[in-house]
Amino acid sequence: MPRTGFCPTCRLPVLWTVTEAGKRLAVDSEPHEEGNTAVRRDGTGTYRSRRPSAELPLMGYERLHKPHVATCEGRQAPPVRTGPLPAGVADLSAYRRRARGRP
Question: Is the per-residue pLDDT at 103 higher than 90?
Answer without folding.
Answer: no
